[in-house]
Design a protein that fits this description.
Length: about 300
């Protein structure tokens, strides 16, 4: 639970917020915070930015329930009263950061989609209409593709842009991923499950377009999960150790090429396996024949006959 606001000090006494001045009965908490803000060496706009940056770091590192308003104010280098001037409580601060992060990441996903060259808007790609088969669904959306475009290259460009966005926006991405993977007990009521589905749905859409063109084969859902798993793994390692695990240019293209090639290879092997088994069965001989191969038949001698 977010900590309660400090009680107002009675008139003629030192303020409980640490302002150390007499407080008329008519003054409110916001008035006290405004006074503290104007007397603070930190500029108002800078104070809010510092509070947001501190909250991003602490919520990502410690989680929601283990982070207090006092921790955030101390990390930002401001008084708690200044934090309460901008945000009603800790939950309001968290939701504000979550909304800002979701909006920012939605813009980054838009950029990633635009980088592929698709001519359809995000709403078309994320159309929740039930599937009527990958080929029909893909064929109806194939007009989104640029002429003679390689779907594998477009997938690589999309993943490449996602990784670049994570590299250049580490704090919002770290905060958002911490929110997604946090236990329910350590997360405020508001959730953004729809946001975390955008990347996978765009990827699946591109895979189905590739199937419609005959460029990609196999299970679209499985390939999408493999791609998104590789993307999340790469981003998580980078966020933990940016210098040791840099997201170098070209990483996204290499991930897509490796997975698509491996996926296609496994499917070809699956198709060839029955033929190999049939061929092996034709050329194999009974075990008894193999056991007697190269041995001279035993002839009964006179001694054998007497026996």
């Amino acid at each position: 639970m977010p900590p309660s606001r400090p009680p107002l000090a009675p008139a003629g006494s030192a303020s409980a917020s640490g302002l150390g001045s007499s407080v008329p009965p008519s003054e409110t908490a916001s008035t006290l915070a405004a006074r503290a803000l104007t007397s603070s060496p930190v500029a108002p706009q800078d104070a809010r930015q510092r509070i947001s940056a501190a909250a991003f770091r602490l919520f990502s590192q410690k989680g929601y329930s283990c982070t207090s308003v006092h921790d955030i104010a101390e990390e930002a280098g401001v008084q708690k009263s200044i934090l309460y001037y901008y945000y009603e409580n800790k939950e309001a601060l968290y939701h504000t950061l979550l909304s800002e992060s979701a909006s920012r990441l939605r813009g980054l996903l838009d950029d990633a989609l635009n980088a592929t060259g698709l001519t359809c808007p995000m709403a078309t790609v994320l159309d929740p209409t039930p599937d009527t088969g990958p080929r029909r669904r893909g064929k109806s959306a194939e007009s989104c593709l640029p002429a003679r475009a390689s779907v594998t290259r477009l997938l690589g460009q999309f993943v490449e842009t996602l990784l670049g966005a994570a590299r250049d926006n580490r704090e919002p991405v770290r905060f958002f991923m911490a929110h997604i993977f946090a236990p329910d007990a350590d997360r405020p009521p508001e959730r953004v499950d729809d946001m975390q589905q955008i990347g996978p749905r765009i990827t699946q859409h591109l895979v189905k377009l590739g199937q419609a063109r005959g460029e990609l084969r196999g299970d679209a859902d499985l390939l999408e999960k493999l791609l998104m798993g590789a993307v999340q793994y790469s981003i998580t390692r980078h966020l933990r150790s940016p210098e040791q695990e840099p997201l170098l240019p070209g990483t996204g293209q290499r991930i897509v090429r490796a997975l698509v090639a491996g996926f296609a290879g496994s499917k070809r092997n699956d198709k060839r396996e029955p033929a190999r088994r049939a061929s092996s069965a034709k050329t194999s001989k009974p075990a008894t024949a193999r056991a007697t191969r190269g041995k001279t038949p035993h002839r009964r001698t006179a001694v054998d006959k007497k026996r």
